[in-house]
Structures are given as C-alpha cells and as structure tokens.
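Review session, final week

We close the course with one last complete record, chosen because it touches almost every idea we covered. It is Integral membrane protein (TIGR00698 family), a protein from Methylobacterium aerolatum with 358 residues. Go through it on your own first, then we will talk.
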Amino acid sequence: MSDRTAAKAGAEGRNRTSAFTALLPGIGLCLAITVVALAAQAIEEHVFSHPYVEALVVAILLGIAVRTAWTPGPRFRTGIAFSAKQLLEVAVTLLGASLSLTAIVASGPALILGIVAVVAVGIGASYGICRLLGLPARMAILVACGNAICGNSAIAAVAPVIGAEAKDIAASIAFTAVLGVLMVLGLPLFVPLAGLTDHQYGVLAGLTVYAVPQVLAATVPVSLLSTQVGTLVKLVRVLMLGPVVVAFSLIAPRLARAEGGTAPAAGRLGFTKLVPWFILGFLALATLRSLGAVPDMATAPIARIAGLLTVVSMAALGLGVDVRVLARVGGRVTLAVTGSLAVLIGISLLLIRGLGIG
C-alpha cells in the first residue's frame, strides 16, 4: 500500500470515527428519555395490567418537555436528527417481520374488503376534515393515517415517506394519543347504546381503536369473544399500513411540488426513489414472515427491537418540537382528530350492520 493510499484510508477512518462520535451525545439524550418512558409504561402495566399511555407517547411528551425547559446545543443535534430519521426507518423495516399476510386470508373476503373500505374511506374523510380546518397537507395525512390504521405507529411510518416536520408529527401523535385513551374508556358504552353483541363490539373495537394493547384494554372488560375478534380485525387493519405507506411514497413528489418543494427529475426517477428502502424492507420481511422464513421465536425479539427504536425516535421528535408552535395548532388538530374519529366510528357501525355481523 502506497503512502498516499494509506493516508487516504486513515483519513476516511478518522472521518467515520468523528461522524460516529458526533452522534453519541444526541443519541444518549434520546436513550435517557426512552429509559424514563419505558419505566413509566412498566409502572402502568404493573398497576393497570395494560399501558393506557404507551412508552412512545410518553417519550415524545417528555422530549417536548425537555425542549421547552432547555434547548439542546449544537453537539446534540446530529444525534437527535439521526434518531428521528434513520432509527425510525430501521424500526419501520423491522415491523414487517411481525406481520403475517396469511391473516388476511383467514379473516374471510367480506370482512377483509370491509376493512379495506373502512381504511380507505377513513383516510379520505379524515384528510378532507383536516384540510377544511386549515391544517397543512402533511399534517392532514398524518392525522388521517393515524385515525384510519393504527394511531402512533401509522403516523411514525408515514411521516418519513411524506417528509413531515417534527412539529406536525408531535402534534398528530399527542392529540391522537389523548383520544386513544378516551376511546379505551368510552367505547364499551356502545354495547348498550348501540345494542351490539360481543362479536359486533369486537369488530367495532378492531376497526376504531388505535393500538393493539388498547384494543385489549377496550375489549377484555366486555368478553373473551370481543377480545379475540377485536384483535383479529385489528391485525388485518394494521396490515393495511404497508400498502398505504407505499401509496403515499408514490404521491410524495406531487405533494412536494404542490407545496413549492423540489420533486425528483422524471427522467431519473427510479423505483427506489419512489419507494424508500425501508418500505421495501418492510414488505420483504412481511412476505418472508408469511412464507415461514422468519421463525416464530424470532418475531417477538424483532418486535421488541422495533418498538425500542420507535420510542427512541419519538423522543428525538419531541426534542425537535417548539411547544409554542404546538399550542398554536392545538385547537384545530383536536377538532380534526375528533371529527375524523367520529366519522371512523360511523363508517364502522355501517359496515357491521351492512355485513349482517351477528
């Protein structure tokens, strides 16, 4: 090896080390918030058996609180940005390993088509409500996907695809989280008010409640049948996340042009530009899981890693939010999420009656 080659290799090594070192303070801060958030969730699970407010919600709220009290200096910013973007992309990829596409087949064609229709109509109606209330297009998409699919996870997955800003992500998750808790507490009232059977209530919970743990919390007090049906419907609903994220990755350039951004040149726009690498990874892992290539014993550890990375990313997003900006959009976001959720419940009840679910 010549002296020039050795010097070049040494310089590259130092640059990589320097880049890695620059990430540590910000990642360390995000990890510290993550530890506190996970501890809070563990306390909830110990006291209530279910985490009504998940760790990722606690992490983003703690991040916002830290950012309100203290602005992280320049040495933290690189690691915070890395945690908010790259770690989130890895988490989305790993989520695919816990989703088996065979659940779609097992659910029956009528209910499957009904769930697809509810998600599609829910996204469209929610987006329209948000835009009527004057919310930006990207935030409207986040709120719509969060309401129609799986709350925080959908928001976290769609956000990097459409280039959403941290303040939009934080606002969407914060207000969706609040209504998620209210849903868990109030949804059982639909059993007597709407005259729902345990089976019907399970379908309603699976179609409207945001997170899987919240579905359990909302259905366990009613019956075991409601819990089983709600979990199955919720799983099929979560499987819509992949196609929806791919769809939004295809319209992301158009969204950028509409808001004055720069879209990729048409002549150089390849498939990997249209569909981000982590979405391809998500779909690949979901396919492998469906084919049995991902063993059952591996899904739980992978899901835990994905969940941990998501919480770290949410802490980073919270650290990038100016709470004063969040306060300015609070009223509109609350109305948008509430209106979207009301529409989703209405559509779900119509589906239950229309399909004659007993």
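Two points worth writing down before the exam:
Residues 262-270 have pLDDT under 50 and may be disordered.
Residues 147 and 341 are 6 Å apart (CA to CA).
Good luck, everyone.
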